[in-house]
Write a structure and sequence with these properties.
The protein has helices at 3-9, 23-31, 44-51, 62-70, 106-115, 135-146, 185-196, 208-239, 243-250, 274-283, 290-316, 344-354, 388-392, 408-414, and strands spanning 13-17, 36-40, 74-77, 88-91, 123-127, 155-159, 178-182, 202-205, 325-329, 358-362, 396-399, 418-420, 435-437. The protein is α/β, with parallel strands linked by helices and 438 residues long. It folds into two domains: 3-206, NAD(P)-binding Rossmann-like Domain (Rossmann fold, 3-Layer(aba) Sandwich), CATH 3.40.50.720; 222-437, NAD(P)-binding Rossmann-like Domain (Rossmann fold), CATH 3.40.50.720. It has an eight-stranded mixed beta sheet with strand order 3-2-1-4-5-6-7-8, sandwiched between helices. A five-stranded parallel beta sheet has the order 10-9-11-12-13, with helices on one face. The chain is globular and about 75 Å long. The N and C termini lie far apart (59 Å). 45% of the residues are buried.
Amino acid sequence: MSPKQKLENGTAVIGVLGLGYVGLPLVLGFAEKGIRVIGFDVDQSKIDNLTAGVSYIQHIGPGRVASAIKNDVLQATSDFSRIPEVDVIIICVPTPLDRHHEPDLSYVRATRDTILPHLRAHQLVCLESTTYPGTTEEEFTGQIQARGFELGKDFYLVFSPEREDPGNPDFSGTNIPKVVGGHCPACLEQGVAAYGAIYKTVVPVKSTRVAEMVKLLENIFRAVNIGLVNEMKIVADAMGIDIWEVIDAAKTKPFGYTAFYPGPGLGGHCIPIDPFYLTWKAKEYGIHTRFIELAGEINEGMPQYVVRQVGERLNQLKKPINGSKILILGLAYKANVDDMRESPTFKLFDYLKIQGADISFYDPHIPVITPTREHAEYTGMKSIEWSQAAISAFDLVLISTHHAKYNLEELVAWAPVIVDTRNALVNVATQPGQVTKA
């Protein structure tokens, strides 16, 4: 019996591999529709938390997890030999870049190789990890067929790009339209049925390659426009023009303009990474994606630009960066979440430390830095306490992320020098010369 048939008769079991910012919302999406789901992860702490009914992602309320466990529609395990129990296998594992800015598919391949011995007939494999066009076909088709399965007949394969936006109050989880591309029409039918069981809108496309390219286009569109406005900011700063005022005026135009905002660099698992997946794959076809690469260069250079602004501001006070106590507000890569993946704050840490600064951070969403792939040296570093004594002891405060939980009135009362990369203080009364926008 196919996954679609089992979904129709209420006997389907869903397996989600990778229980992070993409996988956990997906697990809950199925569970809350009364569809049994098994979550798989190699991180035993996640398994233990879910089994106890505890959420480890801040914007996902613990009540949702506890309810799914109580209703016996959610199980979590690190035992991948249970793969035969599920009818749909959804892979949500990281696809980072290596140190040469080339795609790192090691997590996808390791997951694939782990499940291959356990596959059975009439299952659907869905890859959600962002990657370059052709990955699903290249990394899964031959390996599945080598197990003796015939795609479209007794086994099914699709790609469906994740579209999670942590902390977005308007669009989250299953109310975001879901793009699905299949290896063949029969595969697509199964994929549409699987995601259609929980998503309000499913958007089918002709192939896995199209679906893979959709995700890259969405994020490259954002990366390029952010690169543009970051460059405009640098030019505006040199001319003594407030780029934030320019953007506010420009967005009053009701057509032909979409507002994007500058910042200290790109963060999150998508925008800093996805453009390089396409530029790498394009070289295979003899194409040099100059426009995309230029935007990447501009965005990657923003942390250094911000640090130069910090240096200039301290220089005005006759202080060097070397030896100065600098507090960075915000470790999360975006406002009001606890997600620090690829956060530009880490690069600010690096560049300031190289120049001898004594750095600390404050983030109400991240009390301590947990292990990361690229910044292990900061593991265990704790957010400072929010107090007048603590804040006023710093030579300079740098706003990297604008969380709503900040008390900005207290900040300007306590911090003599502030560098603001997010226009956070635009509506707060400050002293002349106290704030520098960067």
